[in-house]
Design brief:
The complex is a heterodimer of chains A (234) and B (87). In chain A, 22% of the residues lie in helices and 25% in strands. With 234 residues, chain A is α/β, with parallel strands linked by helices. Chain A is globular. Classes of the chains: A alpha/beta (234), B alpha+beta (87). Chains A and B meet through loops of A and helix 1 of B.
Chain lengths: 234, 87
């Protein structure tokens, strides 16, 4: 299968995602430019982390108007796999491909550290090699990662099992202390109703090789490959 | 310069919706208390945009600015807005 990694002005995790796709899970991968008007037949599009358009106005607010985002929206509508990591998630929220919005971290600080997240839903193209309750050690690096959604919206997420990852302690306990940024319901990652769009604040591409301190992020990339190899069945 | 080329101006105020946590506002509120200002119960932060524009979009100024607010300046999940057109 073929991954595509979009480069927006200010993306800075694009090469990390590219390297994991190419060298760690050994798949085809291509960079896509924000002004491109085609997704080059990629099977899974990654919106990487960074500070697209300098995070001006609101994180992701300007990137959503890039030429390539029209294609990403059509692709997602047709069931194509889209993964937004960190700033990529912020763009997906602004574009309306995922529900909710990001607020400033409650500490008001940029937080860059390893955290633990619990797999809440393993029945997705992105987590099918994980099991429910599995704890992954993956780093975060953001200032605006405090996930917010209305009470009604949160209930919908729960009902439709769209909550994919929640911040937890190393034993899987969902606690206030394990919530690094104030996110509602400890939410670290969500998917859309159709399960083909994932957004997560932690960076799996920074935790896919043991030399980087954790290989847990690799499960997500491998799950995507597995999903394709099994004929797009979860 | 002809009258039709004169720029109109709008001021847009964007605030977080009531009930949405405002970590910046609450930090400022605590700072004011620590500085000795008593009775400062709540601070909400926001943004102001000043926009100069030509009035030949085929839309009323109010419609134009409202559209800009909805499409770009605000995120309706967390923010609300109001604006004034300066004549």
């Amino acid at each position: 299968m073929k991954f595509g990694v979009i480069i927006f002005p200010g993306s800075n995790c694009d090469y990390d995602a590219y390297m994991v796709a190419k060298n760690v899970i050994k798949q085809d991968v291509e960079f896509l430019w924000h002004q491109d008007t085609s997704l080059s037949n990629c099977d899974c599009v990654i919106l990487p982390g960074g500070f697209s358009y300098g995070d001006y106005l609101r994180t992701g607010a300007i990137a959503k108007f890039s030429s390539i985002m029209k294609k990403v929206m059509d692709f997602a509508q047709d069931g194509g796999l889209v993964v937004g990591i960190c700033n990529g998630l912020q763009i997906l929220l602004e574009a309306g491909l995922l529900p909710g919005a990001m607020l400033r971290n409650t500490s008001l600080r940029f937080i860059c550290k390893f955290v633990h997240i619990e797999v809440e839903n393993e029945n997705t193209p992105f987590t099918n090699l994980c099991h429910k309750g599995q704890v992954l050690k993956i780093p975060i690096a953001h200032t605006d990662g405090n996930y917010f959604i209305s009470e009604e919206g949160l209930n919908r997420l729960k009902q439709n099992q769209q909550i994919v990852f929640r911040y937890c302690d190393q034993f899987g306990g969902i606690t206030q202390e394990a919530n690094p940024n104030g996110s509602l319901y400890n939410i670290a990652g969500i998917c859309n109703e159709k399960r083909n769009v994932l957004g997560m604040m932690p960076h799996p591409e920074r935790a896919s090789e043991s030399i980087l301190g954790s290989e847990d992020g690799k499960h997500i990339f491998q799950s995507i490959v597995n999903f394709f190899e099994k004929g797009k069945q979860i | 310069m002809g009258k039709e080329n004169r720029l109109a101006r709008a001021v847009v105020y964007v605030k977080l919706k009531d009930g949405v946590l405002d970590p910046q506002g609450s930090t400022i509120q605590r700072a004011l208390e620590n500085m000795g200002y008593q009775g400062i119960k709540d601070v909400r932060s926001g943004k102001v945009f000043e926009i100069a524009f030509q009035q030949n979009h085929g839309k009323k100024p109010e419609e134009l600015i409202d559209e800009i607010c909805r499409k770009l300046l605000t995120n309706p999940v967390i923010e609300k807005y109001n604006f004034e057109i300066l004549k």
